[in-house]
Each structure stands twice: as C-alpha cells, then as structure tokens.
From TrEMBL:
Keywords: 4Fe-4S, Iron, Iron-sulfur, Metal-binding, Repeat. Transmembrane segments: none annotated. It comes from Thermosipho japonicus. It comes from the Bacteria. The keyword Nucleotidyltransferase does not apply. One of its GO terms (molecular function) is ferredoxin hydrogenase activity. This is NADH-quinone oxidoreductase subunit G.
C-alpha cells in the first residue's frame, strides 16, 4: 500500500525491464510501440556520463529504435491533448461556477493520496487521464485504425520518470472499450528512465555516439507547453496559456507565467483573465501537498485551480530518474525543460496541428462523448473509513 503512495520509489520498483527485454528478444508479430515522458529526455543522458541538464531527445529516440521498437511516440503529444481536454474542463467550470478548486490529475501518486486520505476532494479533480494514459488510448484506437492492425496486436511500453505510473496502468477504470465491445488495457508496461538506461547498456548501444533521430508521427509532434509538464508549475502554465487564449480570444502578450515557476514547495498567484481573477496554486512534494490540502479543508486558503505533483520538483525529480548527488540537480533539469520550451516553434497546446487533426479525424471536439470515453476517468474513495473489514 505504501508503495502506491511512494512517489520517489524508495520502497520498491517493479523490475518491468525484464518483461520488456523478453518481448524485445521474442520478435513475434506484435507491434512494439514506445512513448517517452517529458522529463526522461533531460535526465537519461546522466546515466551515460552527460552533464546534468543536457537535453538528449534525439539520442533517446534513436536508442529506443535500436532496442527494437517499431514506433517511438512522444508523451508530450499527449500532454498537449491533456491540456486541451483539461483546459476545456476548466473553462466549463468557470462558466458553470465550479466546482472549485479544480485540481490537476496527471500525477498518479497524487491520485492515490486523494483516494486514500483526501476523498472529500474527489469531485474537484479533473477527470482528464494522465498524458501516459491518453497516449496509449489514442495509440490503441486512432493509430491502430490508421495502420490497420488489431489493438491487441500492439504492445505499448511507456518510459516514465515514475514508479507510481506502474500502478496507474493497473487501475480498472483506465481500461477502454473498443467498438466491438472488448475491454482492453491501454499501457502494457511501464519502465523508468533508469530501467531504459539499463536496457540500453545491456544491449551495448553506444548512447553518446548515436545520431539524433525524430519521433514517429502522427503522435510525435508537440509544443513547448507540453515540454514544461516535466517540472513543477508546468502543467499550470501550459493550461493557463490555453485557457487564457480560448476565453479571451486574444494572443497572450507574454507566454511565460513567471509567478508559477520556481522550486518553492507551495506557490500561489492571481491571474487576470479579462477582469476575471483566477487564484491558482502549485504544490510539489508530499509534505507540501498535504499542508496545502489541510489548509483548504480548514478554510484557511481558497483557490480556483491547483496543480499537484507528488515528487519534489515535479517529474524531473521522479523516483525512476537517475540517482544524483548533485545538490542542484533539480534546477539543472528544470532549466533544460524550460530551454526546450523556449526553442520550440509551437508553444501553445491548442496550436499543435496534429492535435487539431486528431479532433477533426477522430475525437470530434474537446470533451466530446468519444473524448470522454477514451481520455477521461473517475476516482473512488479508498480511505480507511470507507473500507469494509472482512474476516
Ligand atoms: Fe510520477 Fe511525476 Fe507524480 Fe512523481 S510527480 S509521482 S514522477 S507523475
């Protein structure tokens, strides 16, 4: 039970790399698809002696292909999709008067904490699945149709900074129902950044010597807004970029929301959207998260929108990331994440042309019926008081 709550993987880390290795060595007719989370690319290089804060996206993609994956997609694409779905939900709540505060939902360790210790906030949490789960749902429906294969012939492997993501994929409410009635799991295996590095080393792939390669398409295009998901405050900033522009129908004069950046455990800001003041907060690290939630429960604080990440620094500090003794490791990885955003041509999730195409060809519109079926979930009260004791 503790392992489900443990964001830093101190208690156990299921060795899924062994299962993935078996699949890679088997070379049967299954189609092997990988996806990589925003924070993996700014940390994996450390396992191969690169300076902390190096961005090694192209080498990472090349190494995953050398391992034998048929397609390498970018979880950042799904982070853009999450922002469009979650941003639409936020705008809906602003128009309908709540319920507030609305909480982000992409951190599964936070969801476990919510269900076990703060169930009174269940209706406040966005119903949007995490980017990992949105990507796998889209791969096993939209992409499977595009390449003409049965979804059950695809093996979906996520590469995540996180040990809690291994638990997330076992939640029954994360399954999707296909048109023919079959219920399927979307992500089959999760391996961490460290486990990916282990596989690359075992296969004697010269990571440093690899030429950069691009993600596969159509699920490989992403924006700078998606890149910043990997750092505390990033989901909030990405959501604000989209919500502001959709509500006002105006371009933001400045895309950086500096008030929500930084590594302080709890940060708050007031964002003016055409006269409507949105009170936002960000918390990372379980102790800070609990402090914030307790204050809200006691009525000592009020906010409209809150980003919660269980790990210190957000996913850059996840339990599956390379171990480091560098006291500035989080700052270095965060600065690498922000540099990806600054160098991106597209920096707003709703401007991702492949996301727009996905809606045109398949999902119809944000928060549509089919989007809800595939991209949203629900939470249950798993607190001790609600547990039925059986002998
Ligand atoms: Fe996983 Fe990121 Fe949450 Fe840590 S902050 S538990 S790495 S999703």
């Amino acid at each position: 039970q503790c392992a489900n709550l443990c964001p830093v993987g101190a208690i156990y880390e299921t060795p899924d790399w062994r299962k993935v290795l078996k699949i890679l060595d088997k070379k049967d007719k299954k189609i092997l698809v990988a996806q990589t989370a925003p924070s993996v690319r700014v940390a994996i290089g450390e396992e191969f002696g690169m300076e902390p804060g190096s961005v090694s996206t192209g080498k990472m993609v090349a190494a995953i292909r050398r391992l034998g994956f048929d397609y390498v997609f970018d979880t950042n694409f799904a982070a853009d999709l999450t922002i469009v779905e979650e941003g639409t939900e936020l705008i809906g709540r602003i128009n309908d008067g709540g319920p507030f505060p609305m909480f982000t939902s992409c951190c599964p360790a936070w969801i476990n904490l919510l269900e076990k210790e703060y169930p009174e906030f269940i209706n406040n949490v966005s119903s949007a699945k995490s980017p990992q789960q949105m990507m796998s749902s889209v791969v096993k429906t939209y992409f499977a149709k595009k390449i003409g294969v049965d979804p059950e012939d695809i093996i979906m492997v996520s590469i995540m900074p996180c040990t809690a993501k291994k638990d997330e994929i076992t939640r029954p409410q994360q399954k999707i129902k296909l048109e023919d009635g079959r219920e399927i799991k979307t992500t089959d295996y999760v391996i961490t950044t460290r486990e990916l590095a282990k596989l690359i080393k075992m296969k004697q792939i010269n990571f440093i010597g690899l030429e950069d390669e691009d993600f596969d398409n159509p699920l490989g295009t992403s924006t700078g807004a998606a890149a910043i998901f990997g750092v505390t405050g990033g989901v909030m900033e990405a959501a604000l970029r989209t919500a502001y522009e959709i509500i006002t129908n105006k371009k933001l004069p400045k895309l950086e929301f500096n008030a929500v950046r930084g590594l302080d455990g709890i940060r708050e800001a007031e964002i003016d959207i055409e006269g409507k003041k949105l009170k936002v907060a960000i918390a990372h690290g379980t102790a800070n998260v609990k402090k914030l939630l307790d204050d809200i429960r006691d009525g000592a604080r009020y906010y409209d929108f809150i980003e919660i990440m269980a790990c210190p620094g957000g996913c850059i500090g996840g339990g599956g990331q390379p171990k480091s003794l560098d006291p500035d490791i989080l700052k270095k990885r965060a600065s690498a994440i922000y540099s990806i955003d600054e160098l991106s041509t597209l920096r707003r999730s709703h401007e991702n042309p492949d996301i727009q195409k996905l809606y045109e060809e398949f999902l119809e519109k944000p928060n549509s019926h089919i989007a809800h079926e595939l991209l949203h979930t629900y939470y249950t009260d798993r607190s001790v008081k609600n547990k039925v004791v059986t002998e």
